[in-house]
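Example 3.2
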Amino acid sequence: MVAFLVYNDGVIMALDFAAIIGAVLFGLTQQDLIIFVILVQITNVIGAYVFGLWVDRLGGKQSLTLSIGLMIAVIIAMYFAQNSTQFFIIGAVAGFAMAGTQSVSRTMVGIFSPAGQSAEFYGFFAVAGRTSSFIGPTVYGLLAAGAATWFEGRGETAVIAEQMGQRLAILSIGLFLLVGLGLLALVNEQKARAAARTQITHR
């Protein structure tokens, strides 16, 4: 749950600020952003299906590690992206990866929940998700605004300062994902599965 709280912050940040990043850094219009959102939704559906297959073959932790690692690669690519075409490609990959982090996380909650207590654990999971909805975006917003003000104070134009602030804030998304990935590495999936089977047997 702690790992989810952290890496889900990164996912929420990417979702919340994708349109702003597209408009500020690449000059996307409202129509462009609508197309972008549709593209992300399509790849999200594909990702949910593919990661569902991978959970059965690789296990929950490995599949989730793969999806978070892919999201980190997306953030690095976003930081260096220079045009709208690259932004759309990155968005498509991000939609695929986000499906993994979200769907596999829910699957792991079901796997780890004690017998007869899945409702309580899914409730706890939902609370962690709600918490993620404001911590990460707040950090991103403060960092982007603060950095833009700092760069403008150093002589950059308002437009350039805002763009530089956005690029710096993008890195904070990667930091949340990286820390969450590190916490996930501490999770022992096999032990959790064994404990769940033992509880079911005892019942």
